[in-house]
Amino acid sequence: MAVNGAGEFGDTGIAGMSEAAARAALIPLTPTAQETRRGPRTPVECGDLPFLIRRDGIWLYRGSPIGRKEMVCLFASVLKREADGSFWLETPAERGRIEVEDAPFVAVELDWRGAERGQKLSFRTNIDQIVTAGPDHPIRIAYDLITCAPTPYIKLRDGKGRYPIEARISRAVYYELAALAEPHVVLGRRECGVWSGGRFFSLGDASAAADDA
User: Fold this and answer.
1) pTM strictly above 0.85
2) d(CA 142, CA 12)
3) 19-100: which CATH number, 3.10.540.10, 2.40.128.110, 3.40.50.300, 3.20.20.20?
């Protein structure tokens, strides 16, 4: 597949397909009665695919950005995460591993309603997915092993193991979260964080996280 600066595709297959072929391959298929009796088919392994998702959420193919948001959303809809933490593009016919620098998505906008324990925080990602933080979509803070700098994430959906598919919360959105933060005692410690969906999410060191997010 070739991708030019405008994000156009050529050739065939998950690693090289026309836009029309990509859409056809990625549309969820309704199994026939015969296929249902046989059970789900196993996708063909394609190995490593020449895709990279950068830390800023930009998708690259062979080093070139995929310029069309519709195509990014199409590929994102079949993004899976294995139990070992690796990321794969998987259609009913084939699957291949891709490289992801950090989280595959970025939370770029925040909307909040209510206050304190009744507050609901909704995030929009760079592919326009909306999720509301809560028990099913927790916010977490990861710390760099060397610098100890924190980076915030929100869970979008489950992976096949303990590693979920997440969005990194952008710096601008983190500033908004920090402005909504309030103190709360967690396991005997007084922490600063936010409420959403009936759960309290600690933001850790707010100033350090905002510098790194």
Assistant:
1) no
2) 39
3) 3.10.540.10
List, as own/partner pairs, every contact residues 204-211 make where C-beta atoms lie below 8 angstroms and the sequence separation is at least 24, other chains included: 204/141, 204/143, 204/150, 205/150, 206/178, 206/181, 208/148, 208/149, 208/150, 209/141, 209/149, 209/150, 209/151, 209/152, 209/174, 209/178, 210/171, 210/174, 210/175, 210/178, 211/149
Report, at the CATH architecture level, how domain 105-212 is classified: Roll (2.30)
Q: What is the mean predicted confidence (pLDDT) over 28-32?
A: 41
Three-state SS for 91? coil
- The residue count of the chain comes to 213
Question: Beta partners for 110?
Answer: 123
**CA–CA dist 134, 213 (Å, integer):** 20
